[in-house]
Amino acid sequence: MIKVAVCGANGKMGKEVVAAINNDKGMELAAQIDIKNSEFETIEQAHNKKDIDILVDFTQPSSIYENALYCLNNNINIVIGTTGLKDNQIEELKQLSEKNKTACFIAPNFSTGAVLMMKFAQLAAKYFDNAEIIELHHNQKKDAPSGTAVKTAQLMSEAKESFIRGNCFETETLKGARGANSYSDIHIHSVRMPGYMASQEVIFGSDGQTLTIRHDSTNRSCYMPGVIMAIKYAYEHKIFTYGLDNIL
Question: Which CATH number is associated with domain 2-106+221-246?
Fold first, then answer.
């Protein structure tokens, strides 16, 4: 029986994770952690009173790094669904995970459809010299761009150094109009709007044609099979893993 603690248990994603764990016969909900109206307010409090094999974190960008450090320094395997980690922070967590032989599983997106969207974009990147990403989320998402958009751009950038071939010199009359210039000059545009949950489209272009690859999440339950898969993988493999695509 895998003993799982959920950090951010009272959030929208946290509640879904709690339900998914309770519905899995191979898992036991060891602790619910949240700063409001929960069994424990901190990971340390839960760790002092409960046996925890895996901690699943769906909190916020401002706290995820410290949460991960605590887990890895205390031999608590962690599955991270919270986005907002910087590249240097991810690298530090990787080194700490390897040093302490404690699992650290980071996934920008737990939806199998979103992972396939990223892989399809990575494949298409070989055949197009121009591309941009538009990601659309609800207006309560605190980080921009999304972790999924960043991961997609990283994967695409493996194909070539720049995706703005033939573009003219640009002047933004309003700062930020062209979005964020990310890996290999892939522009990422972030939309925050009530009515959306999580959507992303990758637009490729060449002379006479465009290709759009899009994924939409309409409810949070679509992430749960990926979360459960990550928990089981992290329990069995005490290594650093970045991206659900590595275990599909």
Answer: 3.40.50.720
Q: Which residues contact 201 (CB under 8 A, 6 or more apart)?
A: 133, 134, 212, 213, 214, 215
Cα separation, 76 vs 74, in Å, equals: 6
Q: Tens of pLDDT along 135-163? A: 999 999 989 999 999 999 999 999 999 99
pTM: 0.80
Handedness of CA 102, 14, 148, 150 (dihedral sign): negative
The answer to whether 242 touches 234, Cβ cutoff 8 Å, is: no
First and final C-alpha spacing in the chain: 23
For 121-131, write each residue's pLDDT tens digit. Answer: 999 999 999 99
Give the tokens for residue 48: 């002092």
CA distance 124 to 88: 28
- Contact predicate 4/20, CB 8 Å: no
Q: Where are the domains of the chain?
A: 2-106+221-246, 112-217
Q: Which residues are catalytic?
A: 137, 141
Residue carrying structure tokens 């939409």: 216
What is the architecture of the domain spanning 112-217? 2-Layer Sandwich (3.30)
Low-confidence ranges of the chain (pLDDT < 50): none
